[in-house]
């Protein structure tokens, strides 16, 4: 584990295997002739920005972010949220992707015209948002299912 770094406004970032992560990302980007990976990484970054925005609204405290070969993870150690707020936090990422996909389609339809980048951006956001809604442990859909079941079956 590496020493945490602090950046704007005191967000703590912990990076594990950072040279390995950077090597694989650089190698993949070098082999990406179509630009699909770049768009996918942009959509993944926007997905995490959705979670960060919800975190800022709900917790009002700088988050801890872990960077690993598996991706980015928002650490909730020491922060206890009610199930309804956890539901909002888990839904923020997929909602961001689905909303950006809809905005890209409307933008292409009524303003800018269709383009390959627009198609790919809309499709990548749609796929990432839908994939994260799968009810599997570790994905946002798993947290949504857990929190939804918890809301309905907890004593009032």
How is this structure best described in words?
With 156 residues, the protein is an alpha+beta fold. It is built from 5 helices and 4 strands, in the order ββααββααα. The chain has helices spanning 18-31, 36-58, 83-112, 116-132, 140-153; strands at 5-7, 11-15, 64-68, 71-75. A 4-stranded mixed sheet has the order 1-2-3-4, covered by helices on one side. β3 (64-68) and β4 (71-75) form a beta hairpin. α2 (36-58) packs across α3 (83-112), α2 (36-58) packs across α4 (116-132) and α3 packs across α5. It is globular and about 45 Å long. The relative contact order is 0.13. The mean pLDDT is 85.
Instruction: Find the structural class using helix and strand composition.
Output: alpha+beta
List the secondary-structure elements in sequence, H or E. Answer: EEHHEEHHH
Give, in spatial order, the strands making up the sheet with the most strands: 1-2-3-4
- Show unreliable segments: none
* Sheet with the most strands, sense and barrel status: 4 strands, mixed
Radius of gyration (CA) equals 17 Å
Global geometry: globular
Distance between the amino and carboxyl termini: 42 Å
Give the helix tally. Answer: 5
Helix content: 55-70%
What's the total count of β strands? Answer: 4
- State mean pLDDT (0 to 100 scale): 85
Note the beta-strand portion. Answer: 5-15%
